[in-house]
Amino acid sequence: MSTTEPRHPRLGAAVRTDLRRAGVLDVLTDTTSRAAHSTDASLYRVPPLLVVRPRSAEEAAATLEVCRRRGIALTSRGAGTSVAGNAVGPGVVMDFSRHMNRVLEIDPADRSATVEPGTVHATLQRAAAAHGLRFGPDPSTHTRCTIGGMIGNNACGSRTLAYGRTSDNVLGLTVLTGTGAALALTSPPGRVPEGAQPAALRRLVGAGLATIRTEFGTFGRQVSGYALEHLLPENGFDVARFLVGSEGTLAVCTQATVRLVTDPRHRVLVVLGYPDIATAADHAPGVSAHRPTACEAIDSRIVDVVRARHGAGAVPPLPAGGAWLFVEVSGDSPGELTDRARAVARDCGAQDSLVVAEPARAAALWRIREDGAGLSGRSPAGLPAHAGWEDSAVPPAALGDYLRAFQGLMDRFGVTGLPYGHFGDGCLHIRLDLPLDRPGGREVLRAFLGEAAGLVAGYGGSVSGEHGDGRARSELLSAMYSPEALELFAGVKGVFDPGNILNPGVLVDPRPVDADLRVPAAPPVNRGLALLYEEDGGDFTQAVHRCTGVGKCRADNTSAGGVMCPSYLATKEEKDSTRGRARVLQEMVNGTLVGSGWRSPEVHEALDLCLSCKGCLSDCPTGVDMAAYRSEVLHQSYRHRIRPAVHYSLGWLPRWARLAAHAPGLVNRVARLPGVAPLALAAAGVDGRRTLPSLPRETFRKWFERTRPGRRAGGRPVLLFVDTFTDHFSPEVGIATVRVLENAGYRPQITREQLCCGLTWISTGQLDTARGVLGRTVDVLGAAAAPGTPVVGMEPSCTASIRSDSMELLGADRARPVAEATRTLAELLAATPAWAPPDLSGREVVAQPHCHHHAVMGWNTDAELLESAGATVRRLGGCCGLAGNFGAEKGHYDVSVAVAGQQLLPAVRAAREDTALLADGYSCRTQITDLTGRTGLHLAELLARELPRPAPDGSSGRQG
What we know:
Elements: H1 11-21, E1 27-28, H2 31-36, E2 50-52, H3 57-70, E3 74-77, E4 92-95, E5 103-107, E6 112-115, H4 121-129, E7 133-134, H5 147-153, H6 160-163, E8 170-177, E9 182-186, H7 196-207, H8 209-215, H9 239-243, E10 251-259, E11 261-262, E12 266-274, H10 277-287, E13 294-299, H11 300-310, E14 323-331, H12 334-347, E15 352-356, H13 359-370, H14 372-375, H15 399-413, E16 420-422, E17 427-429, H16 441-458, H17 470-473, H18 483-496, H19 540-544, H20 566-571, H21 578-590, H22 601-608, H23 615-619, H24 626-638, H25 645-649, H26 653-660, H27 664-671, H28 676-684, H29 700-707, E18 716-721, H30 724-728, H31 731-743, E19 746-749, H32 759-763, H33 767-784, E20 791-793, H34 796-810, H35 812-821, E21 822-824, H36 825-830, E22 844-847, H37 851-857, H38 860-868, E23 872-875, H39 893-900, H40 904-910, E24 916-918, H41 922-932, H42 939-944
Parallel strand pairs: 2-4, 3-4, 18-19, 18-20, 20-21, 22-23, 22-24
Antiparallel strand pairs: 1-2, 5-6, 6-10, 7-11, 8-9, 8-10, 12-14, 12-15, 13-14, 13-16, 16-17
Helix pairs in contact: 7-18, 10-15, 15-16, 21-22, 29-31, 33-34, 33-35, 34-35, 34-37
């Protein structure tokens, strides 16, 4: 029986009722969740009937039984990072990552681990590392992919040369077949599996021995189709290994036991430079003689993307070349490793080479390789680049010739892409700018994939090397397998899943490769937008489709200083991830599942917990800017309509602050009257657990003008951008900035006009007002700053608004001169000749970089300045949780505190009293004070405290 998209609108409710009666309680039928699960990391879009998140194997079995009884498709899903459309389906999507994500046992003696299918790879690695062990395969998505998903695809990763594929590391599986039968399998088999299905499978294999022996297992990366070679008598009829890579079409995995290996004590990376990627491929087979752990390739244009997005300093030095092989050698003897690394550099035909022994530098280079799928999401032509033919593989000796022939095919079709991959075992990754958003795009895709399949088969290769076939390549299997082999596939499916319940449309009776495509379903949205989306052709649709689904937003990136995605880490809900929000927005623009446009409840539900932290702008490899999309949605939804109260209170904060500055003492006294603060917060739409800020007796601007006669007249001019927060709430930051700049030989100046970056209007979606406010600021700063005069921002979020938001609101021609002239304090000081920071030796600093600082400017310059001053710096990742107006709004307090609890609160509570709590952002300092009672410092304050001379008269004391 073939299952298709559910037809009856009441079917979801009926199935949910059946599931609950069967004891399955975590069932999502709401449109927001269905939209968030409508696609994975592939081209394909298939909205599910509902989503089940089982808590146990028993609930998984009950779900399967309900689907069998009703004839509804069941698709297993882990992290949803499947690139071929393996984890989407029209019926029930069973998401194992929410609850069935535990490491059940680590057996150090047996060197094995038993896990549930939703266990994240990184979670298993941490548990194994405590015993000096590791799980060998390591896909680039290792921070979020699940072991169940790896089993489904037979995932490999960068270190397959040393550790093998997932199928080489599975010791046992507990599965439910499509008939509902439970099988407990071991590898190698301890005994012949019992039951009707293993017996029928044995008969099927016996009849097809010649086909299996000649067509299967021909080289290591032949992942496409079913791995029938494991069922040969000479291979022990290993059903467990056979099921690895079956993509959830034959069985549902509820538990797995995997092999663990020892991790070598030392690793050295050797980077080999070649003129081009094909030449690098030519030399990859020669690397194998040196027993590498990994041999990966990357095109220089991918590295250029990193430099363009994050600056030249984001890429460590590389040898000369247009492409590189990253060769890792590992072992327990440093001396032996050094000799092996030198031999690799000498013997592999490279035009230049570099041995990288320092772990931090090697890790930075490996991160670029790991982010390849996202970084290649834009082609060399600047167009959206898509998966679909991102995972072909050939025997390594044929890879160079295959690459040249494949480039010829690309040229003939007029498409481009950025190649990289696992060249040591012949696997090529590339995303192509196929014209899916244009008329005839589907036909181009079908024609290209057909010819590409024939090409790879001609080199003895596989249409998939590790991602599986899914909806993207199952129809292409006839190019590499005989009719007899395809009949065996159908026979296997008939044995395990005769009702075609499990992941229908994949591998057997496949859906057409050009069916269910996500991009063509979404028309362009390019009229009446408030933001320009210049890098996306002015098209909101193209902007939200930047998300390719690689799911880095589901990983905890904070230990490496990352920010994305704080709300997902707090709730663990897919809809609260950057990817989940992008999927809901994609459904909004296609207008089917989410059908009420900008004001759709599903859209606002998905965006409600977005902190607008901009972490995704820098941390997402594809450059998604969810903060901008959220602003656009709010703008379109409330334009010319009554807005929520908080849009008027916090959204108009600069106006209220200027009014209050006329009588700060009176405002403070009124705010302390009994009952006033709670009423004011409630009226403003602010959570009652927040506090009203105390206003300073004197604004920074007034202090600056009052003390101007007593300050030095000489020095290099620098223009301070006096933002609302520094002027009206933290003038001590501005005073300290003046002191530090004067000490560094500068003469700070300010504009006569009060200026604002418009951030509060941007974050609340009042973009017409924001454009006017920010436009005036840019114009005034541009006129006030003589050519070559730097502009220094003091509040990170406001500085980021000048550097980034101004380009989207005003256009590059108007905004770029001021954006490029604007610096952070650390950036200016670092570029100041002969300036040295005050001595901070012995000072411990816990630093919470502001999210916008991290995302737009980068915080490395600040870190280097502090370290050069002798400070011991602990840099926190993640967001403080307040995030401007987010944590103050009603309904957000608990999530705000949960976000702070990820990194900030534990670090502050563990810090000694004399530890400096560095937080340049006003919201970060406010969160620290609100939740811990401690006081955060701006970088300027930290430096100014160590300067030899006192500040000019005029403190920023608070008025009682």
